[in-house]
Amino acid sequence: MQKVAMVSGASRGIGYEIALELARRGYALSLGVRDPRSFEGIADALVHEYEAQQPLAARDWVDATIARFGKLDVLVSNAGICKMIDFDNGTDALLAQTFEINVHAPFRLAQAALPHLRRSGHGRFVQLASLSGKRIANTNVGYQMSKHAMLALTHAVRRAGWNDGVRATAVCPGFVNTDMASGIADLAPEAMTQPHDLALLVANTIELPDTASVAELLVNCRYEATV
Question: Is the pTM above the cut of 0.85?
Fold first, then answer.
């Protein structure tokens, strides 16, 4: 039976490449994007408006997915932001926005999707996090705090769904060749991890058996002593 996957932040970059790879592998797709009208879609996918900062957006999208496909097997939580929030110039407003999008929104998605992932019997949850959730390499404390929280969320989903066959993985890359990294990376685009590389890793990970679950997947584009 065809598996159903939801992917947030699917309009470009990592999310779009994950959606393309899952489509190639035969998954039915429900794609969460901020503006469905501007999305150059993937054939037969459900393209649903998903604004991470809206409290009801997650449940509306999950409900629409179930109404269309009748089930859910995979949730890839990919939407996120990166704003500079250091001790010198960080503000409460920026920290609140970062946590709303990077932490609260994935929590709401997981909360809405988990009952359906449990019913799948072999549900999969993937959180696109960051190596910033594993180590402190610069002064962007707000972003790092949010990514550490993403890892905690992933392990919580892993614990909550384990006995029902749900497996959860936090994918933690360094710099990825996307718009987000273009203004902050000290590497040439070709030296970064490419979005399609992550798409392959995500697709391969969710297809592992329940007995070979990967809790954290650390992805390096250059040597790092701590990981």
Answer: yes
